């Protein structure tokens, strides 16, 4: 099975570091990239059209939060005809957020932090 | 009237009423009587006339006979002159004597054997000598007749041979019994007529005529004047045998009937005139008679009508003596009304029957009536029925003075109004009851209409609720507008006007100012009534809801507070869950990693990370603590603070940063601006806004902060305007004051400052607003609450 690319968008540096380490240790994915907020990631995708197979997206971020990013990203996907499986990884346990996420087609699943090895395996197998 | 008189009256009335018939009858009677009298008179005059005529005839006849007698004497004298030998002796002498003696004899002759031999005077009469009369056709018959009768015979008048008309008298002479001849006298006709008096006869009434049958022609010949035919006239005749003559007396008038025709006509005209006159004269009385009769009938009819009206009227009518108040006569209805019969009421007076309370009024008006000051009056009063019960009546009294000069009386028309009175009392009672009920309603009941401002009714409660009496309401149509709370005035008037026009019932709440100046919250429930067509009435009830409004406002405030707190709490719980969870999940992840990491160096690194996470967690806990302290500490101390003093203090604290970033600060806030606030909060707030203005300065221009303050309603507003990077409010407006909401990539944005600031302002019952344009700058407005406690009730 060919390993997939997984990118992380989150403003929490500790989370990013820990998650990255965990992904590396899991050896389930081929490549990892991280972004501090939505706009940073979107800029990258627009410029490179390098869309990963899987995106781990946080919701609470400065400048451009997860929801704004979703809006922009979905239209970008349609534009460049490349698609990613988005997994929302939020510390929020609010039901509203979970419900809201279902409205976005590109969102595969709503996951609660922390992302652990089991969740990574789940993502890798599901996708 | 006797029977006869009556009959006469009837008959005369009969005639009087028939002028035409009477006229005709008068005419007929007159005509008959006049004609009869004419007839009798005519008879008498006719007899008189005949008598007269006969007399006249006799006179004339006598005259003629006298004339003849004279001639006769002459003839005999002449005859005696003949001697026995048959020779006349002294003829001429005798003739001369005779002629002298008898004037009317013109000529004397002796005619022996019918031949004229002797004539005296001869002169002028020579022609007749030797004329044989017996041979003459004209004389022969008369001559023979004379011979035969042996009497004198006169012939003529005839034409004489010697000329002229004459009458010839011939006496046959016998000598010795033998016819000798004739002695003859010739009378000139004119002379003869004269001698008989015929010529001189003159009369208006009659004329004479003499006739004789012509012996030759056998025709009757007339000799006197006026020979016209008189057979149709009245005449008398007498026969004169001497000359075979007829003497006539003829009435000059053609007929006697002609005489009376004018009289009859006259009588007819007179009768006709009388008839017409009678007709004309009777016509007027007849007309009057007819009118009189018609009038009489009318009067009788109206009398009957009035009597029946009086008797059977639905109203009581009574005729009363004004002097003593005694009833003279009352109709059935009146008797029924007071319960006495017709006889009983004659002993009663109205004073006895009238309720004592009503009597003075009645008597006063009656006196006025008696004096003639008024002609009529009406009043409502109580009568006592025979049974003792009261009868309410409406009585109309009119003076009645014409019937008897000595009696001043009046006529009263009485209507039983007991039922109406009872209904009135009932209505009054129920009205009072309704009013009592209305007044007992714990609200102001009012009524008004669309046309006029103001109210037409206000219940008494208005005095208690609003301090104004119903009179004050009714006297001032604009009172309601006047006492409307100034803040409500505009919208309440607009709202009521709009609904009044569309006739919509409304139920709304507003404030009025009590007469004592207090604010009264009222609920006004207004309904629309269509009392009559086109008349729309509004009725409303104004309920004092000040207390409940106070409760409501307090409740609303509490609710708002609770809601706000709830919201904050929820927000807080989200913050807590999110922030704490993000840290705990990091810790969890790190611990997981540490567990699976075998390399010591890496484990150390992870442990360091774990430490930093725990530090951040601590920091977060501190922040949250701070927030909680603001939100829970509701009874923070308020002080009157000089705003400018605190601004200056803040600038001093930030001096280093201001100088470093070359920030210009323009402070327009006056030294007299004071706010009621917690000092620590004010410091914190100002520091936060100033720091933000410097932190989010625009990289391309010199930072500038302008401070202004002013009063807006119950707030003192402080404006902090900068020319920094600005905020996209459309995108980030809702996040601006949220906890841990950051929307810049600035390293030191934590999303805490504005959250705490807002919480502090809210806790002081103020508010914060922001205007901002991206890349131009931001303007934060801090509203410091300046209102007194009682003015916190706002809609």
From TrEMBL, chain A:
SMART domains referenced in this protein's UniProt entry, alphabetically: REC
Superkingdom of the organism of origin: Bacteria
InterPro entries per record: CheY-like_superfamily, Sig_transdc_resp-reg_receiver, TCS_response_regulator
Entry keyword Phosphoprotein: yes
Signal peptide, first to last residue: none
Keyword Phosphoprotein part of the UniProt annotation: yes
Pfam families cross-referenced by the UniProt entry: Response_reg
Entry keyword set: Phosphoprotein
Span of domain Response regulatory: 5-127
Modified residues (4-aspartylphosphate): 58
Protein name: Response regulator
UniProtKB/TrEMBL annotation, chain B:
PAC domain span: 377-429, 506-557
UniProt KW keywords: Coiled coil, Kinase, Membrane, Phosphoprotein, Transferase, Transmembrane, Transmembrane helix
Enzyme Commission designation: 2.7.13.3
Primary location recorded for the protein, binned into one broad class: membrane
Enzyme class, spelled out: transferase
InterPro entries for the chain: CHASE_dom (IPR006189), CHASE_sf (IPR042240), HATPase_C_sf (IPR036890), HATPase_dom (IPR003594), His_kinase_dom (IPR005467), PAC (IPR001610), PAS (IPR000014), PAS-assoc_C (IPR000700)
Species: Flavobacterium luminosum
SMART domains noted in UniProt: CHASE (SM01079), HATPase_c (SM00387), PAC (SM00086), PAS (SM00091)
The protein's name: histidine kinase
Swiss-Prot/TrEMBL catalytic activity: ATP + protein L-histidine = ADP + protein N-phospho-L-histidine
Coiled-coil ranges (or none): 580-616
């Amino acid at each position: 099975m060919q390993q997939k690319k997984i990118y992380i968008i989150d403003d929490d540096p500790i989370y990013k570091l820990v998650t990255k380490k965990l992904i590396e240790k899991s050896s389930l994915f081929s490549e990892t990239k991280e972004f501090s907020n939505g706009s940073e990631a979107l800029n990258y995708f627009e410029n490179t059209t390098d869309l990963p197979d899987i995106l781990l997206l946080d919701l609470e971020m400065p400048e451009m939060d997860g929801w704004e990013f979703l809006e922009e990203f979905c239209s970008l996907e349609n534009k460049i005809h490349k698609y990613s499986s988005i997994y929302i990884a939020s510390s929020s346990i609010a039901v509203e957020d979970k419900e809201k996420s279902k409205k976005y087609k590109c969102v595969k699943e709503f996951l609660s932090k922390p992302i652990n090895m089991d969740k990574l395996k789940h993502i890798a197998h599901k996708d | 009237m006797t029977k006869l008189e009556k009959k006469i009256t009837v008959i005369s009335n009969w005639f009087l009423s028939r002028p035409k018939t009477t006229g005709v009858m008068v005419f007929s009677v007159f005509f008959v009587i006049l004609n009869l009298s004419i007839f009798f008179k005519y008879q008498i005059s006719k007899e008189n006339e005949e008598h007269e005529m006969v007399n006249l005839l006799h006179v004339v006849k006598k005259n003629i006979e006298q004339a003849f007698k004279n001639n006769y004497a002459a003839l005999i004298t002449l005859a005696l002159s003949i001697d026995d030998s048959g020779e006349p002796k002294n003829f001429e002498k005798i003739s001369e004597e005779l002629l002298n003696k008898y004037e009317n004899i013109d000529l004397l002759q002796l005619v022996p054997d019918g031949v004229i031999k002797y004539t005296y005077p001869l002169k002028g009469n020579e022609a007749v000598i030797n004329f044989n009369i017996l041979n003459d056709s004209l004389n022969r018959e008369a001559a023979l007749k004379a011979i035969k009768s042996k009497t004198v015979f006169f012939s003529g008048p005839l034409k004489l041979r010697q000329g002229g008309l004459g009458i010839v008298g011939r006496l046959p002479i016998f000598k010795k019994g033998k016819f000798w001849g004739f002695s003859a006298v010739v009378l000139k006709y004119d002379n003869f007529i004269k001698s008989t008096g015929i010529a001189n006869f003159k009369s208006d009434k009659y004329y004479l005529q003499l006739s004789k049958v012509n012996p030759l022609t056998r025709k009757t010949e007339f000799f006197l004047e006026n020979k016209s035919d008189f057979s149709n006239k009245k005449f008398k005749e007498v026969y004169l045998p001497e000359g075979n003559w007829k003497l006539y007396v003829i009435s000059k008038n053609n007929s006697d009937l002609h005489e009376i025709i004018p009289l009859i006509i006259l009588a007819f005209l007179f009768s006709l005139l009388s008839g017409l006159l009678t007709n004309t004269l009777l016509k007027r009385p007849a007309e009057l008679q007819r009118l009189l009769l018609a009038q009489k009938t009318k009067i009788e009819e109206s009398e009957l009508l009035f009597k029946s009206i009086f008797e059977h009227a639905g109203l009581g009518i009574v005729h009363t003596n004004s002097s003593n108040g005694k009833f003279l006569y009352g109709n059935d209805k009146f008797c029924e009304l007071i319960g006495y019969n017709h006889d009983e009421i004659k002993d009663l007076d109205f004073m006895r029957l009238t309720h004592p309370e009503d009597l003075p009024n009645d008597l006063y008006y009656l006196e006025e009536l008696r004096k003639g000051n008024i002609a009529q009056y009406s009043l409502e009063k109580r009568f006592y029925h025979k049974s003792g019960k009261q009868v309410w009546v409406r009585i109309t009294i009119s003076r009645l003075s014409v019937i008897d000069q000595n009696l001043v009386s009046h006529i009263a028309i009485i209507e039983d109004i007991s039922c109406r009175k009872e209904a009135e009392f009932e209505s009054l009672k129920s009205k009072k009851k309704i009013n009592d009920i209305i007044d007992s309603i714990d609200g102001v009941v009012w009524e008004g209409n669309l046309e006029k401002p103001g109210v037409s009714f206000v219940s008494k409660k208005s005095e208690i609720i609003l301090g104004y009496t119903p009179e004050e309401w009714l006297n001032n149509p604009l009172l309601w507008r006047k006492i409307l709370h100034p803040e409500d005035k505009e919208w309440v008037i607009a709202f009521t006007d709009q609904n009044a026009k569309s006739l919509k019932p409304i139920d709304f709440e507003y404030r009025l100012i009590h007469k004592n100046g207090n604010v009264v919250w009222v609920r006004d429930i207004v309904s629309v009534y269509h009392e009559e067509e086109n008349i729309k009435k509004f009725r409303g009830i104004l309920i004092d809801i000040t207390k409940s409004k106070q409760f409501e406002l307090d409740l609303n405030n509490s609710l708002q507070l609770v809601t706000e707190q709830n919201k904050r709490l929820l927000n807080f719980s989200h913050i807590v869950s999110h922030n704490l969870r993000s840290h705990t999940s990091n810790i969890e992840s790190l611990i997981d990693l540490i567990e699976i990491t075998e390399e010591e160096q890496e484990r150390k690194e992870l442990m360091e990370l774990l430490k930093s996470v725990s530090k951040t967690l601590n920091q977060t806990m501190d922040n949250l603590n701070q927030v909680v302290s603001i939100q829970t500490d509701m009874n923070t101390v308020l002080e009157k603070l000089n705003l400018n003093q605190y601004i200056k203090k803040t600038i001093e604290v930030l001096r280093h940063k201001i100088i470093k970033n070359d920030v210009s600060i323009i402070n327009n806030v006056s030294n007299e601006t004071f706010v009621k606030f917690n000092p620590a909060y004010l410091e914190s707030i100002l520091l936060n806004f100033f720091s933000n203005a410097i932190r989010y300065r625009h990289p391309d221009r010199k930072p500038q902060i302008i401070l202004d303050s002013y009063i807006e309603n119950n707030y003192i507003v402080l404006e902090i305007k900068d020319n920094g990077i600005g905020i996209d409010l459309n995108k980030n407006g809702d996040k601006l004051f949220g906890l841990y909401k950051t929307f810049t990539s600035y390293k030191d944005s934590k999303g805490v400052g504005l959250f705490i600031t807002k919480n502090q302002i809210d806790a002081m019952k103020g508010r914060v607003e922001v205007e901002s344009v991206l890349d131009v700058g931001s303007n934060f407005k801090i509203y410091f609450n300046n209102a007194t406690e009682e003015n916190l009730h706002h809609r």
